[in-house]
Amino acid sequence: MGQDQPIFRVRPVVASEGAELRAIRLHSLEGSPAAFGCAWATEIAYPDRVWRERAVPTPDRRMWSARRAKQWLGLVGAVREADARIQLVSRWVDPAWRRQGVAGTLIATGAELHLWVNADNLTARHCPKREGFHLTGVRLPLPPNAAVDGVEMRLADPAADARNDRLRPRAGRT
User: Fold this and answer.
1) pTM for the full model?
2) Does the N-terminal or the C-terminal CB of the chain have fewer CB atoms within 10 Å?
3) What is the pLDDT of residues 55-65, one digit of tens each?
4) CA distance 147 to 145
5) Residue 108: which of 159, 58, 70 has the closest Cα?
């Protein structure tokens, strides 16, 4: 493994990963049942459609997974509450990967600042960009007008970059 390769990466869960989301969620509920407000017996009964829907990022809900190659090591979600605060949900890390920076990186990712801008309004993008926000590549209809597409912008977080640097192996180590 090269010096610049991270030990793991945090990626958004996407629509095509409903089956993977189901597997990691059920694994987490089975291994740590007291850690969650939902029960394994309830969630295993959900049809595939529910898992596909949960995997789709929306302006009010998003999931991230920590991965090493194709292995999912952990999970976190962020859900916008009725009062507009963001709640982190479904926080879980595989026991073999605990105390190795996975949970902290997932929490920092889920708590990152982001905003939505009308995709066609270049002027509206300018101020956030000047303040350190950058486009994430996510494009979704903006509620309440589904005819208007929005693009997501995320605030670059130097502290998160420093945390990610800690996750890189040092020269001579694997």
Assistant:
1) 0.62
2) C
3) 998 888 889 99
4) 5
5) 159
